[in-house]
């Protein structure tokens, strides 16, 4: 009798856990199929690399000290990213795609969608993919909230900033998948939205 009750109780507990886990997973996906990568209250799902200072709160993740990265615990292959970010005039930042080394992120081992208005080589300043797709004219990010929509599908890349296409069809096949990273390499950068939709 006791064993039967215990078995029923455990089964009910397991069923309840599965239902709650399913509801939680569904709540993270919006109506367009996008999943939130930042919650603005914690760094759950991310790891810190380097010496950057990351401040989290009030719905925002802020990087304000060089040199460091946040990198996702999960790896991604083909996807669309939607981001909202703010940068000051001296900001040197970027969103890195398909990172190949979780301990050392660079534009040599990942695809960097740049946020760097003052980059010396303006060909790969804000809105460009460093060493893959140039941008002209260079959109300016400083002092305002901006949006990115970044598509990585196989060897093809597209970047739209504030509704304007900055990279129409960048092409490169070096890296097929990997984590996503956010950079803090000078100045101040803030992210209040970072969503991903696997393709």
From TrEMBL:
Keywords: Signal. It comes from Polynucleobacter paneuropaeus. Pfam families: 3keto-disac_hyd. GO terms for molecular function: hydrolase activity. InterPro entries: AL/BT2_dom (IPR010496). Transmembrane segments: none annotated. Residues 33-197 form the 3-keto-alpha-glucoside-1,2-lyase/3-keto-2-hydroxy-glucal hydratase domain. This is DUF1080 domain-containing protein.
